[in-house]
Amino acid sequence: MRILYFGVYNPDYSRNRVLIKGLKQNGTEIVECREEIKSFFKYLKLILKYLKLRRKFDVMIVGFPGQEVMFLARLLTFKPIVFDAFTSHYGGYILDRQYFNKTSWRAKYYRWIDKFSCRLADLVLLDTNAHVNFFVEEFGLPPDKFKRIFVGADEDVFYPRESAKKEDKFLVHFHGYYIPLQGVEYIIRAAKLLEKENIMFNLIGRGQTYEKNRKLAADLDVKNINFIDKMSYFDLTEHVAMADICLGIFGDSPKTDLVIPNKVYEAIAMGKPVITADTPAARELLSDGENVLFCRKADPEDLAEKIRFLKNSSDRSRIIGEGAKTLFNEKLASSILAGELLKHIRES
């Protein structure tokens, strides 16, 4: 099978990176037709590139992000199109980040483009069944159009390794873009509760709520948090390797229930014990006490208690980390996820 990967996607973004790599591992020939320039001319450039490749593929995959590209893709070909929606514009920009009011024209546009981009595809990919249910119920789309493909992580980048700590403290790691679903404010409040217990938190990244959370940390006078600027994909692995435990997401926005974030996949790929919110999406893959430790959403006291538990129970921490790596190897390797995708393509 020859697949044309099409759109304005970034091939280094984890979702695209994992699927393209896995498809190649499964013996699939990948032809890429993409454009990353910001202006409207990217669509013209995509058309010109496509015309040179139009007879060289069997199936098109529109990579993430792809809502705005789906209309062009359907105009260009009658061949099967797999749309890796991965996430919802409306769910992300309106329900989670709340950039615009639900009644605004922007919100209406995001709802419209989410819905009709999916309608144009022969098969739509999302990361969890909880996310599939959201698309079906929110946009009135048929459930048989969707398939779940977990996100995974690049196992050639995220793998278990030894890394010497820079300080003699129990190290808790988080990285992210400070969007509401991540609930960084609850991590900060949990850190304050653990301030006298020889526990240090590394919070890596910047984003929407960063300044608000820096102010919260200053107001609480938290002394056991290192705020570290964003860094490259590869440098990040060294910080994960140093950590005793890694954190997932803890917010209470609607999107929190729908996703398993990249950071969780990356940590379990490295065999790290992870604490994350107990959500329907997380329970599709993870088992509490076996390969993850769940805590209640938006609850810094419960998060602090779970961190304390793993700090004081090295055996359980080790069991969860080993269980996480086993889970990754059995269900989340690039070749396995892409193999599932190829099966869905052949059956559709």
UniProtKB/TrEMBL annotation:
InterPro entries the record matches: Glyco_trans_1
UniProt name for this protein: Glycosyl transferase family 1 domain-containing protein
Pfam family for this entry, one: Glycos_transf_1
GO molecular function: glycosyltransferase activity
Domain Glycosyl transferase family positions: 160-325
Superkingdom of origin: Bacteria
Gene3D superfamilies: Glycogen Phosphorylase B (3.40.50.2000)
SUPFAM superfamilies referenced in this protein's UniProt entry, alphabetically: UDP-Glycosyltransferase/glycogen phosphorylase (SSF53756)
Organism for this UniProt entry: Candidatus Yanofskybacteria bacterium RIFCSPHIGHO2_01_FULL_41_26
Transmembrane annotation, as ranges: none
